[in-house]
């Protein structure tokens, strides 16, 4: 965790696969692994859900940030976790940057597919990705670069297939719930929410019209898709700093 700056702390929340590591001059920030990921890979699948991740991150905030309200940056599934965290603990959140996070079940199309897989099918899928890390990246970036192979391999090793199945099922349950849109509206009413997307993937992000109107700011980053923090990290970080008022730090 970086503490060099006086900027409000920033909590980066990763998506369904991989870590959320950005090394391009972010101010004070942390990117802890969710339950089932990284150092928490041994977490039993029965204990892995979006509500459990909210409690996991709330405990992290309380332990590491001394009661200071944090800025949340949630990517993909992490965007849904960020919104649920802000709804459950609004006093612990200052601002939110939702980076192509799940707004509707349409955003969870891949999670829905994973949730339907058997344990063996999920293992085979992940093994296939791990056998060809750059091929896996090719589904999200225009031209995977050879030096990204190590990053992709590390991201693919960040979680077991059992975590993917548990998280995918919870994503479908949470974002498909009747009250999810009301939850999102409450968060927008309480906090500034910024919407950040990649120019290539923007059209596939099913943000409701009311959210576009209610957001504090929106930006689609040129030359990027869903993994914009990998493709153009400096541009991504500059957008975060602008959204969160860190430009001078």
Automatic annotation (TrEMBL):
This is 2-succinyl-6-hydroxy-2, 4-cyclohexadiene-1-carboxylate synthase. The gene is menH_7. It is an enzyme of class 4 (lyase). SUPFAM superfamilies: alpha/beta-Hydrolases. It holds the Pfam family Abhydrolase_6. Residues 11-239 form the AB hydrolase-1 domain. GO terms for molecular function: 2-succinyl-6-hydroxy-2,4-cyclohexadiene-1-carboxylate synthase activity; hydrolase activity. The keyword Hydrolase applies. Its EC number is 4.2.99.20. GO terms for cellular component: membrane. Coiled coil: none annotated. The keyword Lyase applies. It comes from the Bacteria. Keywords: Hydrolase, Lyase.
């Amino acid at each position: 965790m970086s503490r060099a700056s006086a900027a409000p702390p920033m909590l980066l929340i990763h998506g369904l696969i991989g870590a959320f590591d950005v090394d391009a001059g972010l101010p004070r920030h942390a990117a802890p692994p969710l339950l089932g990921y990284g150092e928490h890979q041994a977490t039993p699948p029965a204990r892995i859900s979006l509500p459990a991740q909210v409690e996991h991150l709330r405990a992290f905030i309380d332990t590491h940030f001394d009661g200071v309200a944090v800025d949340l940056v949630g990517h993909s599934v992490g965007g849904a976790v960020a919104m649920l965290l802000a709804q459950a603990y609004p006093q612990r959140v200052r601002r939110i940057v939702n980076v192509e996070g799940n707004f509707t079940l349409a955003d969870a199309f891949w999670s829905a597919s994973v949730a339907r897989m058997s344990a063996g099918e999920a293992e085979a899928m992940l093994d296939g990705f791990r056998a060809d890390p750059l091929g896996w990246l090719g589904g999200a970036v225009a031209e995977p670069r050879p030096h990204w192979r190590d990053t992709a391999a590390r991201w693919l090793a960040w979680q077991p297939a059992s975590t993917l199945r548990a998280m995918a099922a919870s994503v479908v349950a949470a974002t498909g719930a009747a009250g999810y849109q009301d939850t999102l509206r409450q968060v927008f009413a309480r906090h500034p929410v910024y919407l950040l997307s990649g120019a290539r993937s923007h059209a596939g992000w099913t943000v409701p019209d009311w959210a576009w109107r209610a957001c504090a700011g929106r930006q689609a980053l040129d030359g990027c898709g869903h993994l914009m923090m990998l493709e153009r990290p400096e541009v991504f970080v500059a957008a975060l700093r602008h959204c969160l008022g860190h430009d001078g730090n």
